[in-house]
Amino acid sequence: MPHLLREIAYVRSGDKGDICSFGVIAKAPEYYEMLLRAVTPERIKQLYGDFVKGAVHVYRLDNIHSVNVVMEQAIGGGAPSTLRLDQTAKSLGHAILRLPIEGMPGS
């Protein structure tokens, strides 16, 4: 069974217009390098598929062992106009925790 990002990280999400942003925070400093290898624009686009129509940016925050992820055109037009059941970024942010990771001790 693959290890998932939720084992090494927390997430906090938000949105503005049609942009979803969330922070992915390593649970411990020793997990930060695994987090960086796992959370890339390419892997995020693959995970979310057609939900994210625009660019994906990942910004490193080395001093707090975190990354800030910004996904453009990710909320179906924004909270007031989307037809999605979850019109904010809460579910989208937490979905990143399903991302498979490699390099866990004992795996």
Which stretches are low in confidence, meaning pLDDT under 50 for 5 or more residues running?
none
Record field, number of beta strands: 6
**DSSP helix count?**
3
Query: Strand-and-helix sequence, N→C?
Result: EEEHHEEHE
Could you state the oligomeric state of the chains shown? single chain
CATH topology label = Alpha-Beta Plaits
N- and C-termini, Cα separation: 10 Å
Just give the CATH class.
Alpha Beta
Radius of gyration: 14 Å
Structure description:
With 107 residues, the protein is of the alpha+beta class. It has one domain (3-101): Alpha-Beta Plaits. The chain is 20% helix and 31% strand. The chain is built from three helices and six strands; from the N terminus they run βββααββαβ. The chain has helices spanning 32-38, 41-48, 90-95, and strands at 3-4, 9-16, 19-26, 56-61, 66-72, 100-101. The protein has a four-stranded antiparallel β-sheet with strand order 2-3-5-4. It has a two-stranded antiparallel sheet with strand order 1-6. Strand 4 and strand 5 (66-72) form a beta hairpin. The N and C termini lie close together (10 Å). The mean pLDDT is 87.
